[in-house]
C-alpha cells in the first residue's frame, strides 16, 4: 500500500509541476503581448495577402521568366494561383482565330517553361494562350476575365531611357488594369 501511495504522490507532484508551468507560461504570454504594428504596415501586409490569383504574361524571355519567379515568391505565403499567359499578337490582316503554327509552338514552349518555374514553388498554375491584336489588350482582357488580384510583368533590362523603359504594352497595362501591377526590371548586369 505504501508503494502505491508513494507512486500516486510522485505522480500528483509531477502533474502539479506541469500544471504550474503551464499556468506560468500562459500568464507570461498574456502579460507580454506582441508589439503593436502601425496601421500602414498592417494595411500593406493585408494587400499582399489578398493576392490569391496572380497573372504573369510571358514571352519565354529570361526577363519574363524572372517575372514568373517573382510572382511565385509574392504568392508563396498565401498559396496563390499563378495564371500564365502568352499573348499571341495576330496581325490585323488576319482573322483573330487564324492558325499561326510557329507562333503557337513558341507560345506553348514559353508557357511550359513558365509552368516548370511555378511547379518548383509547389504552387497551382494555369496556362493559356490569349489572342489579341496588341499584347496590352490581351493581358488586360485575361486579367479581367480571370478576376486576378495582381499582374506581375518582367520587362527588358536593356531598354532605353524615358518612355522606352516600360514600352507601349506595359504602359497600356499600367493605365488600364483593374488590379495592382508589379513591374520587374532587372539591372543591366543582373538577372
Write the layout of secondary structure elements.
Blueprint: H1 2-31, H2 39-49, E1 53-57, H3 62-75, E2 81-89, H4 101-120, E3 125-132, H5 135-145, E4 150-155, H6 167-176, E5 180-185
Parallel strand pairs: 1-2, 1-4, 2-3, 4-5
Helix pairs in contact: 3-4, 5-6
Poorly predicted parts? none
What Rg, in angstroms, do the CA atoms define? 27 Å
Question: How are the strands ordered across the major sheet?
Answer: 3-2-1-4-5
CATH class placement of the largest domain: Alpha Beta
Tally the structural domains: 2
- Distance between the terminal alpha carbons, to the nearest Å? 77 Å
Contiguous helical run count: 6
What is the percent of helical residues? Answer: 40-55%
Beta-strand fraction estimate: 15-25%
- Quickly give the CATH architecture of the largest domain: 3-Layer(aba) Sandwich
How is the biggest beta sheet arranged?
5 strands, parallel
What does this structure look like?
The protein is an alpha/beta fold and 191 residues long. It has two domains: 1-33; 39-185, Rossmann fold (3-Layer(aba) Sandwich). The chain has helices spanning 2-31, 39-49, 62-75, 101-120, 135-145, 167-176, and strands at residues 53-57, 81-89, 125-132, 150-155, 180-185. A five-stranded parallel beta sheet has the order 3-2-1-4-5, with helices on both faces. α4 links the parallel β2 (81-89) and β3. α3 (62-75) packs parallel to α4 (101-120). The chain is elongated. The model has no long low-confidence stretch (mean pLDDT 86).
Amino acid at each position: 500500500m505504501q508503494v502505491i501511495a508513494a507512486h500516486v504522490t510522485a505522480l500528483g507532484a509531477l502533474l502539479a509541476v506541469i500544471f504550474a508551468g503551464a499556468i506560468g507560461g500562459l500568464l507570461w504570454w498574456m502579460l507580454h503581448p506582441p508589439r503593436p504594428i502601425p496601421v500602414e504596415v498592417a494595411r500593406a501586409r493585408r494587400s499582399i495577402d489578398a493576392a490569391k490569383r496572380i497573372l504573369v504574361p510571358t514571352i519565354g524571355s529570361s526577363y519574363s521568366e524572372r517575372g514568373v519567379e517573382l510572382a511565385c515568391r509574392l504568392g508563396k505565403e498565401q498559396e496563390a494561383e499563378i495564371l500564365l499567359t502568352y499573348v499571341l499578337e495576330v496581325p490585323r490582316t488576319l482573322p483573330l482565330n487564324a492558325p499561326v503554327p510557329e507562333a503557337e509552338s513558341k507560345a506553348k514552349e514559353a508557357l511550359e517553361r513558365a509552368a516548370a518555374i511555378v511547379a518548383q514553388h509547389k504552387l497551382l498554375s494555369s496556362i493559356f494562350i490569349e489572342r489579341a491584336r496588341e499584347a496590352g489588350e490581351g493581358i488586360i482582357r485575361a486579367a479581367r476575365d480571370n478576376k486576378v488580384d495582381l499582374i506581375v510583368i518582367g520587362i527588358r533590362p536593356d531598354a532605353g531611357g524615358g518612355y522606352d523603359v516600360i514600352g507601349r504594352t506595359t504602359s497600356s497595362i499600367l493605365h488600364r488594369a483593374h488590379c495592382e501591377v508589379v513591374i520587374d526590371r532587372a539591372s543591366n548586369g543582373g538577372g
